[in-house]
Design goal:
mainly beta, ten-stranded mixed β-sheet, 186 residues
Length: 186
C-alpha cells in the first residue's frame, strides 16, 4: 500500500513472503574453514527458511531535505545460522579449531533504518544513514548471534563548482558502530 499525503510526504506499507533453501555449505559442511579459523559442521536435515516481513516507511522530500524512516518486523520459521559449540574443539593435522554447528530456529527480527539527506547550500550536502536491529529466538527469547549492532554513518560533501567538464566532490565521512550488547556471552 502506498499513500501520498501531499507533495512532500509519502507513506508506504508492504507485507511480503519469502523462502530460502539452505545452501549446500549449510547442509553438508564438515571441515575447517581456512579463512576463518573454525571447524564447521552442516546439518543435512535442515529445511527451507520461510519468512513473513512487514515494512512500513514514511518519506519526506523537499528542495532542502529528503528523509526516509523504515520500520520493519520479520518472522522467520527455520532461520539458519551457525552457532559456536561451547567448549568444543576439533583437532586436525593443521591444528585445533573451535566447532561451529549450523542450526535452525524460529526467529523474530525487528528494526528501524533512517536515511537523511540535507542540502543546506547549493554545492554542499549532508547524508546520514542509521540502522538498528533486534533479533531473538522465538522459543527462548535469547538473542541470535552475529546480528549487527547499532551503526550510524554520516558524510559531508562539497561539489567543486569550478570544473564544468566533470563534477568532482570532496567529502568527509564518519562511521560509528556501537558495541554489541545483545548477545549470549557464553
Amino acid at each position: 500500500a502506498s499513500y501520498r499525503l501531499n507533495e512532500q510526504w509519502k507513506f508506504t506499507s508492504n507485507l511480503g513472503l519469502a523462502w530460502r533453501a539452505p545452501h549446500v555449505h549449510e547442509l553438508y559442511s564438515n571441515g575447517n574453514e581456512l579463512g576463518s579459523g573454525m571447524f564447521v559442521m552442516g546439518d543435512s536435515t535442515m529445511h527451507s527458511e520461510q519468512s513473513t516481513k512487514w515494512v512500513t516507511s514514511l518519506a519526506y522530500r523537499s528542495a532542502f531535505a529528503e528523509v526516509r524512516v523504515d520500520a520493519y518486523l520479520q518472522w522467520l520459521n527455520g532461520y539458519i545460522y551457525d552457532e559456536p559449540e561451547k567448549g568444543r574443539y576439533i583437532t586436525v593435522i593443521s591444528g585445533s579449531y573451535p566447532l561451529f554447528q549450523y542450526k535452525q530456529t524460529d526467529a523474530f527480527f525487528r528494526g528501524v533504518d533512517l536515511d537523511l539527506r540535507l542540502k543546506p547550500l547549493q554545492h554542499v550536502g549532508y547524508h546520514l544513514l542509521s540502522s538498528l536491529i533486534w533479533a531473538n529466538e522465538k522459543r527462548t527469547g535469547n538473542y541470535l548471534p552475529y546480528i549487527p549492532s547499532f551503526r550510524l554513518t554520516h558524510s559531508l560533501t562539497w561539489s567543486l563548482p569550478f570544473f564544468k567538464a566533470f563534477s568532482p566532490k570532496l567529502g568527509l565521512t564518519h562511521r560509528f558502530v556501537a558495541k554489541q550488547t545483545r548477545f549470549n556471552p557464553a
